[in-house]
DNA sequence: AATTGATACAACCATTTGGTTGTAGGTTAT
DNA sequence: ATAACCTACAACCAAATGGTTGTATCAATT
């Protein structure tokens, strides 16, 4: 059974904003492929460690990622459920479109 | 046949950014339901006409919307293709996840 | 215990964003 | 022609964003 999830405007705002940055999307992709520490991630971007840390924090605040302690490092782990919620928001927008197309088709059928 | 579309990082940045605002998403939904003039749209938001105009401009710049002259007003029309491109970007992120799940399942099968 | 490595966090800065008001340019209606 | 309406655009402002450096904390290694 699929539970219909209610997404608040504010949450969708933050979700899309988190996804609207190439570095953050790249961090997401890489942490999906396998858990990586923040410093390991940071090594591959042309910016300071602190900057990458901030990007991870943005992803973490919207739940796209969680951090797991492993010795003295923190592994960044992506959360597929949150990504699904982002998709749901897009789906709802697209659904409005499908509805319109159907209504137009119905009008045409009436003639 | 579905053509695999290449989305540049910059384009996805702008796409998600355009969607990361509740007012803009609402304008999208309303213009999907039926073409509306900018002033008609603006009348229903608690902000100035110029502010709404800017939101429409953001949607227009990323191609989520186009404007069509109708007498002295400009109708805002949504473009479903661009919305689909946004979804494609999300799908590609999700696909990375599916790939991981499959690899993990394969590892488990090997044991 | 001292050092090193990984992270957190504050302070700061430039740029962008989202809002405002005001002015100007077309289009329709009277 | 004039008035009324719709849109465009510039100038301005406060707040948020994305980056920096510096300092502090905490865990592991030696």
Please tell me about this protein's structure.
2 copies of one chain form a homodimer. Chain A is 64% helix and 13% strand. The first copy, chain A, has a single domain (9-109), classed as Arc Repressor Mutant, subunit A (Orthogonal Bundle). In chain A, helix 2 crosses helix 4. In chain A, strands 1-3-2 form a 3-stranded antiparallel β-sheet. The model of chain A has no long low-confidence stretch (mean pLDDT 89). By secondary structure, chain A is an alpha+beta fold. Chain A binds chain B through residues 9-10, 12-17, 19-22, 25, 28-29, 32-34, 78, 80, 83-84, 86-87, 90-91, 93-94, 96-97, 100, and chain B through 9-10, 12-17, 19-22, 25, 28-29, 32-34, 78, 80, 83-84, 86-87, 90-91, 93-94, 96-97, 100. The structure holds a DNA duplex (30 and 30 nucleotides).
- State the helical fraction of chain A: 55-70%
Total domains of chain A: 1
* Total strands of chain A: 3
Shape of chain A: elongated
Strand order of the largest sheet of chain A: 1-3-2
Oligomer: homodimer
Task: State the CATH topology of chain A.
Answer: Arc Repressor Mutant, subunit A
Measured by residues with Cβ under 8 Å of the partner chain's Cβ, the largest interface is: A-B, 31 and 31 residues
- In the CATH hierarchy, the architecture of chain A is Orthogonal Bundle
Largest beta-sheet characterization of chain A: 3 strands, antiparallel
Secondary-structure content class of chain A? alpha+beta
Order of helices and strands of chain A: HHEHHEEH
Number of helices of chain A: 5
The CATH superfamily of chain A is known as Winged helix-like DNA-binding domain superfamily/Winged helix DNA-binding domain
% residues in beta strands of chain A:
5-15%
Alpha-carbon Rg of chain A, integer: 19 Å
Low-confidence stretches of chain A: none
Distance between the termini of chain A: 40 Å
Query: What is the averaged pLDDT score of chain A?
Result: 89
């Amino acid at each position: 059974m699929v539970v219909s999830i209610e997404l608040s405007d504010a949450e969708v705002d933050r979700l899309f904003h988190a996804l609207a940055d190439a570095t953050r999307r790249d961090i997401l992709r890489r942490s999906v492929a396998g858990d990586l520490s923040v410093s390991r991630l940071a090594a591959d971007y042309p910016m300071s460690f602190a900057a990458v840390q901030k990007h991870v924090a943005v992803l973490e605040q919207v739940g796209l990622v969680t951090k797991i302690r492993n010795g003295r490092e923190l592994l960044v782990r992506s959360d597929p459920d949150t990504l699904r919620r982002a998709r749901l928001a897009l789906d709802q927008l697209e659904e409005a479109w499908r509805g319109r197309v159907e209504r137009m088709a119905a009008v045409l059928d009436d003639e």
